[in-house]
Amino acid sequence: MSQILNEVLSAREKYASSFGDKSKLPPPARRVGVLTWTRAISA
């Protein structure tokens, strides 16, 4: 795997390990995802 992917997966594991009891919350009632992006425009 690439170094960037390894860093992202490592950060995800670190975040998940500190998530605590929040993992016991019920799933969202509405299954909605939000996708955002930006587009750089050069002049």
Question: In words, what does this structure look like?
Answer:
- With 43 residues, the protein is mostly helical.
- Helix content is 35%, strand content 0%.
- The radius of gyration is 16 Å and the shape is flat.
- The mean pLDDT is 82.
Please supply descriptive tags for the structure shown above.
flat; 43 residues
**What is the arithmetic mean of pLDDT?**
82
Strand content: under 5%
- Number of continuous helical runs: 1
**SSE string, helix = H, strand = E?**
H
Q: If you compute it from the alpha carbons, what radius of gyration comes out, rounded to the nearest whole angstrom?
A: 16 Å
Q: Could you describe the largest sheet, including whether it forms a barrel?
A: none
Kindly state the number of beta strands.
0
The helix content is: 25-40%
Structural class: mainly alpha
Instruction: Categorize the overall geometry.
Output: flat
| Uncertain segments | none
| Separation of the first and last Cα atoms | 36 Å
